[in-house]
Design a protein that fits this description.
Layout: E1 6-13, E2 16-23, H1 28-35, E3 54-57, E4 60-63, E5 76-78, H2 91-98, H3 108-123, H4 145-151, H5 162-173, H6 183-190
Parallel strand pairs: 1-5
Antiparallel strand pairs: 1-2, 3-4, 3-5
Bound molecules: FE2/S2 (inorganic) cluster (2 copies).
Keywords: Iron, Metal-binding, Oxidoreductase
Protein name: (2Fe-2S)-binding protein
Pfam families: Fer2, Fer2_2
Length: about 190
């Protein structure tokens, strides 16, 4: 007897339950965009390299193109459509607008979801690759431009809005930065 290739699943997205049958190969990204019409989450590379499809799963960042929809059942998923509080933008969204943290806007939903994760991860004391003192007792490092750009380096911006993105994340996190060039910008310049 052939094994089933589809399953009926229920996804919890932005506080609402969505029940749908899916082919087992369907990614969370395609389920969001093609099946549930939640097109705020963008498809860039579709292979985990650009960050355009970033969502939050149980509050942690995840690239939805590398997640199977069937494996997302039971998780709390937040997409860009669920970030604002009604008509009131989230402070991260407002900072991106106020500080021009985008140009074409294609990468922006992923950048904002990633920024939400960054702020939470930093507050929880997670170090990054550029954190000098990673001892737990050292506590969270200062959220410098270097820290922010490293922590956001999984999100590419083909418009090169990196300096503004870093400033926007810093403002949303309540810190100031010097607006220096970012790690991702430097990597792309060197490539
Ligand atoms: S579309 Fe998922 S990382 Fe690029
Ligand atoms: S604003 Fe255009 S890709 Fe980032």
């Amino acid at each position: 007897m052939a094994l089933p290739t589809t399953s009926a699943i229920t996804l919890n997205i932005n506080g609402e339950k969505h029940s749908l049958p899916v082919d087992h190969r369907t990614t969370l990204l395609d389920a969001l965009r093609e099946r549930l019409d939640l097109t705020g989450t963008k498809k860039g590379c579709d292979q985990g390299q650009c960050g355009a499809c970033t969502v939050l799963m149980d509050g942690r960042r995840a690239v939805s193109c590398l997640q199977l929809a069937v494996a997302a059942e039971g998780r709390e998923i937040t997409t860009i459509e669920g970030v604002a509080d009604g008509d009131t933008l989230h402070p991260v969204q407002q900072a991106f607008i106020d500080l021009d943290g985008y140009q074409c806007g294609y990468c922006t939903p992923g950048q904002i979801c990633s920024a939400l994760g960054v702020i939470e991860e930093h507050a929880a004391g997670w170090p990054s690759a550029v954190t000098a003192d990673v001892r737990p007792e050292a506590g969270p490092p200062p959220l410098t431009a270097e820290e922010i750009s490293e922590r956001m380096s999984g999100n590419l911006c083909r418009c090169g809005a990196y300096a503004s993105i870093v400033r926007a994340v810093a403002r949303a996190a309540g810190v100031e930065t010097d607006g220096a060039h970012t790690a991702t910008e430097d990597k792309e310049t060197a490539a």
